[in-house]
Amino acid sequence: MCEDVKATAQKPMQSLRPNKEVLNRLNQAIRQLRAEPCELEKPKDLEALQAAAASGDAKDKLAWLEATLQRAKQDMAQQLREYQELMIVKLGLDFEIATYRKLLEDKEQRLSTEFGTGSVGPSPAGACSGPVGTSAPGGGCTLCSSPGCVGGSGCSGSGRC
C-alpha cells in the first residue's frame, strides 16, 4: 500500500512538471526583456521617430508655405487689377492731354497765320492781360475785337464785354 500512495502522490507531481518548465521559460524570457532596452529606446527607432516628427513638421511647414503662396497670388492678382485700372486712367489722361495739345497747337498756328508773326509770345505792354493769344495787334481782344476787353474766360466773343 505504501507503493500505491507513492504512485498516487507522484501523478500530480508529474503533471505539474511540464507546467513548471513552461513557467521557468516564461520567467527567463521576462528577465531577458528587462535586461534588453525597450525597442523604442533603440537609436534606430529613435531616428525613425525623429524622422517621422520631422516629416510632420515638414508637412506643417509645407502647408503653411502653400497657404502663404496662395495669399501672395491673391495679393498679386489684386495689385494687377489695380494696376490695370490705373493704366486705363493714365491712357485716358494721355488722350485728353494729346487732344488739348493738338487744340492749342492748332490755335497757335491759326493765330500765327492770322497775324503773320510766326509765333505767339508775350503781349506787348498795354495789350490784353488775358491768356496767351487773346490780344489783337491793336491791343483789343482777338475773340470779340473789343479794345476794352481783357479776353480769356470772361470774354463771350460777342463784342459786348
From TrEMBL:
Q: Name one GO cellular component term.
A: keratin filament
Q: Which UniProt keywords apply?
A: Coiled coil, Intermediate filament, Keratin
Which Pfam families has this protein been placed in? Filament
InterPro entries hit by this protein? IF_conserved, IF_rod_dom
Give every IF rod domain span.
Answer: 1-111
| Residue runs in coiled coils | 62-89
From the UniProt record, which GO molecular function terms apply? structural constituent of skin epidermis
Gene Ontology biological process terms in this record: intermediate filament organization; keratinization
By sequence similarity, the record places it as follows: Belongs to the intermediate filament family.
Name by which UniProt lists this protein: Keratin 88
Q: Which organism is it from?
A: Jaculus jaculus
